[in-house]
Amino acid sequence: MAPVDATAVLNDVGERAAVSPSADIASTGASQSTPPPRALGVTFWLAAGWIAVLLFVAVFADLLPVRDPDALGIRTREVEKFERPGWNAPFGGDGVGHDQFARVIAGTRPALIIGISVTLIGGLIGMAVGLASGYLRGKLDAVSALLIDMALAFPGLVLVIAVRAAFGNSIYVFVALFSVASVPAYARIVRGATLSLSERAFVDVAQAMGASKLRILWRELAPNIAVPALAFAFIGFALVIVAEGGLAFVGLSLDQITWGQLIADGTGEINEHPHVSLIPATVMFLTILSFNLVGDGIRSHFAPREVATRRRFRTEGPPSPSSGGSTLRVDQLRTTLHTQSGDVRVVDDVSFELDAGDCLAIVGESGSGKTMMLRSIVGAFALADVTRSGTVEVEGTDMLRIAPDELRSVLGSHIGMVPQNPLTALNPVRRIETQIIEPMRAHRSISKSQARAEALELMQHVGIPDPERRLRDYPHQLSGGMRQRITIAIALANQPKLLLADEPTTALDVTVQDQILRLLLGLQRDLEMAMILVTHDLAVVRGFADRVAIAYGGQLVESGTIERIFNDPKHRYTAALLSSVPDLELEPHSRLVTIEGQPPPLIDPSPGCRFAPRCPAATDLCHTTEPERTDDEDRWFRCHFPVTGDAEIETAGSRSTRPADAIRAETQGVN
Amino acid sequence: MAGTGRAALHDDAVLRVVDLVVEYPLDRKNVVHAVSGVTFDIQKGTTLGIVGESGCGKTTVGRAIMQLERPTSGSVELDGADVTQMTRRELRAARRSMQMIFQDPVSSLNPSRRVKDLVREGLEVWGLSEADMPPGRIDDLMASVGLGGPAVGERRPHEFSGGQCQRIRIARALVTDPEVLILDEPASALDVSVQAQILNLLEDLKEEFGLTMLFISHDLAVVRNVSDRVMVMYLGKVCEIAPNSSLFDQPTHPYTRALLASIPGHQLDLPPAAELISGEIPSPIDPPSGCRFRTRCPHATERCAAEEPTLVETSPGHFTACHYPHH
Amino acid sequence: MLLVARRLVRLTIVLLAVTFFTFFLLDRSPGDPAAALAGENATEEVIEQKRAELGLDRPLVERYVDWLGGAVQLDFGDSIVTAGLSSWDLIRESLPKTLELMILAELMAIAISVPLAMASATRPGGLVDRMASSTAFGLLALPSFVLGIYLAFVFGVHLGWFPTIVNRLPGLNDDPLENLRQMFLPSLTLALNLVAVYHRLLRSDLIETLQEDFVVLAQVRGLSDRRIMWRHVLRPSSLNFTTAVGLNVAGLIGGALIIEVLFSINGMGRLVIESVVLEDFNVVAAVVALLTVGYVTMNFVVDLLYSVLDPRIRHGAR
Ligand SMILES: Nc1ncnc2c1ncn2[C@@H]1O[C@H](COP(=O)(O)OP(=O)(O)OP(=O)(O)O)[C@@H](O)[C@H]1O
Ligand code: SF4
Ligand code: SF4
Ligand SMILES: [Mg+2]
Fold this sequence. Notes:
The complex is a heterotrimer of chains A (671), B (327) and C (318).
Chain A: H1 5-27, H2 42-60, H3 73-76, H4 100-136, H5 138-153, H6 156-167, H7 171-198, H8 201-208, H9 213-249, H10 259-267, H11 275-302, E1 312-316, E2 328-339, E3 342-354, E4 359-364, H12 370-378, E5 385-394, E6 397-398, H13 404-414, E7 415-418, H14 422-425, H15 432-443, H16 448-461, H17 467-471, H18 480-491, E8 498-502, H19 510-526, E9 530-535, H20 538-544, E10 547-552, E11 555-561, H21 562-567, H22 572-580, H23 620-624, E12 630-632, E13 635-637, H24 660-667
Parallel strand pairs in A: 1-5, 4-9, 4-10, 7-8, 8-9
Antiparallel strand pairs in A: 2-3, 2-5, 5-6, 10-11, 11-13, 12-13
Helix pairs in contact in A: 1-7, 1-9, 2-4, 2-11, 4-5, 4-7, 4-9, 5-7, 6-7, 7-9, 8-9, 9-10, 9-11, 10-11, 15-16, 15-18, 18-19
Chain B: E1 13-25, E2 31-43, E3 47-51, H1 58-65, E4 73-78, E5 81-82, H2 88-95, E6 98-101, H3 115-125, H4 137-144, H5 162-174, E7 180-184, H6 192-209, E8 212-217, H7 220-226, E9 229-234, E10 237-243, H8 244-249, H9 254-261, H10 273-276, H11 302-306, E11 312-315, E12 318-320
Parallel strand pairs in B: 3-8, 3-9, 6-7, 7-8
Antiparallel strand pairs in B: 1-2, 1-4, 4-5, 9-10, 10-12, 11-12
Chain C: H1 2-28, H2 33-38, H3 44-54, H4 60-72, H5 87-122, H6 127-140, H7 144-158, H8 176-210, H9 213-220, H10 225-233, H11 239-262, H12 268-277, H13 281-309, H14 311-314
Bound molecules: ligand 1, iron/sulfur cluster (2 copies) and magnesium ion (MG).
């Protein structure tokens, strides 16, 4: 295609368009649904309106009260040569006194005919080819890949000029040529989208149900490709108009009036009479822009993404008076994320304190705000619009209200963080060595060789065999357990006082989990660090922590020592959670206690107790008034009607616990 | 770990898998040995649980039974008929009596279709319509899985939570009245509080529809809860297969013992996990010779490297593939 | 090594197909170079004679094989139309201008889009981002000839800063300032279209990377935003961008042609149009072969860059 300059791009944009809906759906968590379709903005409707006007003009061009586009002003004396735009001729006249307005109108029909037919023919064939080769794979795919390769390698320009020279300049030749030429682009995009869709489980499911390949193609894949393909069709449409213009520009226009031709004709006069080419150029620009806008609008309407649109962090309200002394003090911490769907109250009135050597486990279901509690402490939110209030103090420093520079230095020297997924937590393109040394050199004046020596020592400490060699490796060259040991080493690089571990073993196998947890707890004890261990796994809590806090709906609802909480839960949610989890000590096939309903939304949470909609003991009071914190020996809870005896609700009370100390005693030999 | 042990087979099995091998070619030289000679069966109306760490081949076993993956060798018999030898048409018919539920409930449902159509699809694939079914069958099914109410069918998958999506999936699998249900981590992607709902539901449906189930999971406590028999896999091989309580009370294979000892806070009478296992799972591209567990096993000897152990009955119905099983 | 061999085989297939297709297409064209060369009043015999002289009376396949035989020895035959000059002579004359145009455009585009995309990604939805993004969207809708006209009008006609046509372009060595002054508007026109694409691409990849765990952890380690952007984010985000830059070369050739017409540059674009219209088989096939080799080579370079940028690709882990 002649002016291919935009093609490569739009291919690419289109490809993303085609792939993204699947990716979006895949990325939404299990318990979260996709956001509602995004509303179509004003620009979309303006663009759609412009397209509607063009359609109207193209259909009724003959009936419109405008001059004959071919009437020569020199003869009719109605329009002057190079007449300036005005009442007589809104778009002015050209070099021979043609009425430019009439000519622009006359150019509308060929533009739309070409655009629509090329998009339909090329798009449909391309879609069929792409679907078939993407899903059926095999030889068909190999052959079409080679053909597409050739088509892309062949200079489109030469093809166009040659064909044009061989078969003439009628609109049919043009449509045929461009339909054929656009097939590879559509095929490539649809193929890519089909490939990624085919990997998704619902295709397997359909196959397992006995559906034939044809049925899968038609019923399962095609509907999902349709929207991105439609979006791309609008963009492709614009490309065809550009292509025609480009051809006209190099002197190979159609045998009728087209916008491209008008623009080309006028360029010679750009110095004296700019309006001759500027006006049709602007009409063409608006048209292309409109098609792009509509294509883009369709895409984001059907594949809405919760895109992070801003990056803004704010702190509200005053801090509470410092008591000093503890390693970490969190007091009435509230964190709100401002998103397109509304304000998400991810952390809501959370308070706790940790001293050196303490280990607190925070346990809760997915979406209960555990990760956000940790992130709120360190203020790391990637791209988000966040407001925090309350107090977070690390070693007496107010983390919410200090200058960014100071914050960075506190973070780097006092806090270490161990992530959930060690693979995504390590930068894939940097060596292990660079990543361990970086925080040391950023916060301490220490030479490179000294840092390297420390890194080696650290790696030995976290149990990495052959550390010399591993330093030169990239993350993907290590096993999952080794990667997690590396992230622990990085977290320890500057001897932090506070260690935050966010589900450090969820991504690991159970046999490796045991190794890593023992390592973490051993280090925590040896180095006298305060530690928060976030997890969704009650067994981990029971096996490894000494204090636990239960998270629900962005709040902490109960907290205390392991023995107290596991033997005698007070909050109704804690009690129900403990007994709904299958346990090795339960007899096979015993019925589990269930909690009906779903975890609560964090946007506009109901007033009162967050658990009220699912709580069998809830009363009106629970629905209207948030329960205050009740302190009990070794623990506190927030419930209006706490569990009183074992008889009332089936709890895990009878299961005994192994104190964390026992585990620690065992770990001594290991490290 | 045996590829050859057939000792554990029953005569009255609904589903029988013999010497199943699945290999994925990686490039010209290398092959991923995903499943290397697995033999087991399931008796009617019972549940077999498969446990093992990631990459041990448990999902592949399920997919190979469904013929979603063509086995490299071995047979899969459904009511005595070998599905690996079937023509495409016969296979489609056989699939009516086997259904599989996948781990991720959300991506298992085509996002562009309505729930009612999704559930009905199972029928359409067979050229049936609702009219061929007892009246109200679809509504009953939806109610059975806890998704009653008229408006539900009109909605699309993204309007449902993960737990509800999994219910839709189950209704969809049950519509063709299958005999065998294969469940691949059906509750792992769900919230803890919702997981119990699904596990209870599956137990109810098993009773109601007389289902035979293959339950695949990495979570030992869940498998303990739903299974009648349990099979432990490691790196494409069977380690141990035994009745539920026997396996958990008297594990005899060193790997099983390590797995159980690794569960945090367990109450079993086992030494610390660190004494039972070390290191990490080797690559399935180049698995160890002899017993595949030998690189991590504290009891490994030269014999373990040279000779592959076969399944041996250590107590009634309890089979172990180890040269030196624990007694 | 195997990979390189496979690629070479593929390149050869593509080259053969593409050049033969060129011969075939030109052969089907109604025009007749012999008649054109013989002059308007030539008799049938003279034309025949001319045709035989040019070797045009032989079958298509034979002529193609002939050309191919020469081409493997880097002899692309003589121009049929321009007497006394070989195809290579013609290409050598026009290629430098086109190359200069393309390289200048790429450099300008990268120089503008990379910092702009980084600014956009640092504060998505902020003022800079909104302005940059909507400008980019607008630029995407401007075909190069329209953009060229606008730029020529504003900078050439209205402000009079730069010439609107390239006239007797001095060599880059002889008078670099004048050369660049003349090439500025054409290069900018070509570059702005690219800026739109690059900005859009790089911005969204940067934003994606910024949300990765390892970036959040880098923040928790107290590293500065600048360091995070340059050391952690840019490289893993640049794969798509690299592809676009590399593969745009094919697109650039098309774009360059139009720019050359618009600004009257005697480059490859001119040569292609003229040769195709006059059916100068040898020249067209040589140009096509050259462009194809260029495209495939760029493909290869992009792949190499990939493995430099991402060690996972280097180690075959992805
Ligand atoms: N960037 C974001 N924009 C909007 N909402 C978010 C964002 N990140 C998290 N959330 C929401 O915040 C809530 C708490 O999330 P968080 O990740 O803290 O939960 P969690 O307890 O760690 O869950 P999991 O067990 O899945 O890790 C959830 O409802 C989640 O959807
Ligand atoms: S406060 Fe009320 S609703 Fe909340 S857990 Fe207690 S009893 Fe249930
Ligand atoms: S003792 Fe030998 S055979 Fe048994 S599990 Fe260990 S390595 Fe395998
Ligand atoms: Mg989390």
